[in-house]
Amino acid sequence: MSFGQRGVAAPATAMIIATTEQLAGYRIERTLGQVFGVVVRSRGVGGNFMASLRAVVGGEIKEYTQMVEQARRHAIDRMATNATFMGANAVLMMRFDSSEIGTTMSEVVAYGTAAFVVPVDQSVPAER
Questions:
Q1: CA–CA gap between residue 61 and residue 57 (Å, rounded)
Q2: Which of these, 97, 124, 117, 123, lies nearest to 22 by C-alpha position?
Q3: Is 40 helix (H, G, I), strand (E, B) or coil?
Q4: How many CA atoms lie less than 13 Å away from 36 in the CB half-sphere?
Q5: SS3 127
Q6: Which of 44, 22, 11, 3 lies closest to 115, judged by CA?
Q7: In terms of Cα–Cα distance, which of 115, 123, 119 is closest to 25?
Q8: Going from the N-terminus, what domains does the chain have, and what CATH number goes with each?
Q9: DSSP summary character for residue 87
Q10: Dihedral sign computed on CA atoms, order 120, 124, 127, 128
Q11: Please, are residues 87 and 30 in contact by the beta-carbon 8 Å criterion?
Q12: Per-residue pLDDT tens digits for 49-93
C-alpha cells in the first residue's frame, strides 16, 4: 500500500490494513504471525531550529507534525511490504508505537498480525 510518498516502495499487491480483529465480509483463512515496519527519523538542524522557535511562541509545531505523519506512512508501507513477503494480503489489529532516541531522533513502529483473508461467499441462498 503506498501513500504517494517519495522514496517509499509500494507492495506489488493491495494490502488490507485494519485496526480490528475481524474484517466485515472476509474470513480469515490463516494467520501468518506478527509483522512490523520500523522507521527512525531525525529533523535536520534547520528543522530543529524552526521547531524551537515555534515552541517558544506556542501552538502546533508543524515541522514535527509533518515528520511524524511521514514516519507513520513509511512505517505502514514497510509493514505492508513485510506482510506481502510473508504471503499475507491483510494486516489485522494494526497499531503504532513511538519513542524518542536521544534528543533528536524519533522511532515509529507500525505492527499487527499478518493474515490471509478471503471474501465471504455472499451468494449462498437464505434459509427458508
A1: 10
A2: 117
A3: strand
A4: 12
A5: coil
A6: 22
A7: 119
A8: 22-118 (3.30.110.70)
A9: T
A10: positive
A11: no
A12: 666 666 666 777 777 788 889 999 999 999 999 999 999 999 999
Side-chain-side CA neighbours of residue 39 (13 Å): 20
**Chain Cα centroid distance, residue 87:** 18
To 10 degrees, what angle do helices 45-57 and 62-86 make? 130
Percent of the chain with pLDDT over 70: 72
Which cell numbers in the block locate residue 38?
Answer: 520500523
Q: How far apart are CA 84 and CA 125, in angstroms?
A: 34
pTM, two decimals, is 0.76
For residues 7 and 119, the model is more confident at: 119
Which residue's C-alpha cell is 530543529?
Answer: 48
**Coil vs helix vs strand at 21:** coil
Q: Which amino acid is at 53?
A: L
Query: Which cell numbers in the block locate residue 23?
Result: 474484517
Does position 3 have pLDDT exceeding 50, yes or no? Answer: no
